[in-house]
Amino acid sequence: MHLLGQHTRSDPMYDSRFIDKAFRNQAIIHRHMHKTGCTLAGQPLWTDQENAELLKHYPNYEHLSGVLIRRTKRAMQERARKLGLVKPRRVWSLTEEEKMPPPYKGGAPMSEIIQSLDNKNKQQVYSKANHLGVRRPRRRPRPTGMPIVDMIRDRNFDNGDSPADLNVWTNRKTYWTRPRKYDWKAISHALRILGGRIVPIWPD
Q1: How many structural domains compose the chain?
Q2: pLDDT value of position 44
Q3: Cα–Cα distance measured from residue 163 to residue 175, given in angstroms and rounded to the nearest whole number
Q4: Residue 200, CB half-sphere, CA atoms under 13 Å: how many?
């Protein structure tokens, strides 16, 4: 029961008035946009010419920034999504989040992991693993063909440390990650840190 002159949300009269008001508001917005050429927020509407340029040259932002001078890179990206130039982002399902970690932690090839998921790429898998706190198993460094370098890297691996740690300790940027030649200063420093030493052996 309600008072005379008052209407509840379930009343047909209320519904019709609500719908009429919504249409009127929409018509006002359209008239404003048509008259000013801008959205209510003051952003210029995309023209047919701008859309054509985006369709033709996306994602060449260097070129687009010269012809779409009113648009920021972010605006171009958003418009590209609306025009269907960008694939929709794939949301991880609960099943996928449960399926991915075991083979990832077990060291399965990335191609097999991606194949078991629904349209995911390598970067998405790495990002999701990082978010879930899942780690790939540690792998022993590949042999370089330089015996003393390989022995140092193997010893470092057995100690539970990474090549990046060894770079820091020996004041090197990437040497122990990708060694290509003998760096005797780094080798000498690494031997001292790991408690090793070079023993000369003279041929008979």
Answers
A1: 3
A2: 87
A3: 8
A4: 3
